[in-house]
Amino acid sequence: MSRSNLVLRNTAYSCLAVFLIFAVAYVPMLLKIGYNYDLQVASNVVFMVVGLSVTFGLFRGGVGESKVAGRVRIVFGLLVLFVFLEEVLLNSMLAFYGLALAMVGLVLMPVLAVSLGRENGWLRTALEAVALIFATRVVLSPFPADFFNLSFFLPVIYTLILVSLVLYMTYRGILSRDVRISKGNSKMGTQMFYGLCAGAFVGVVEFFVLRPQPIPVGGDFIRVFVYSLIVMGVMVSVAEELLFRGLLQSSLERVMPAWQAIGFSSIMFGLMHIGWMNPLEVLLAYGAGVLFGYMATSTDSLIAPVTAHAFGNVFLYVIAFFAHA
Question: Which residue stretches of the chain are H helix?
Answer without folding.
Answer: 3-33, 37-57, 69-90, 95-116, 121-138, 153-172, 188-210, 221-227, 237-241, 249-252, 258-271, 279-299, 303-323
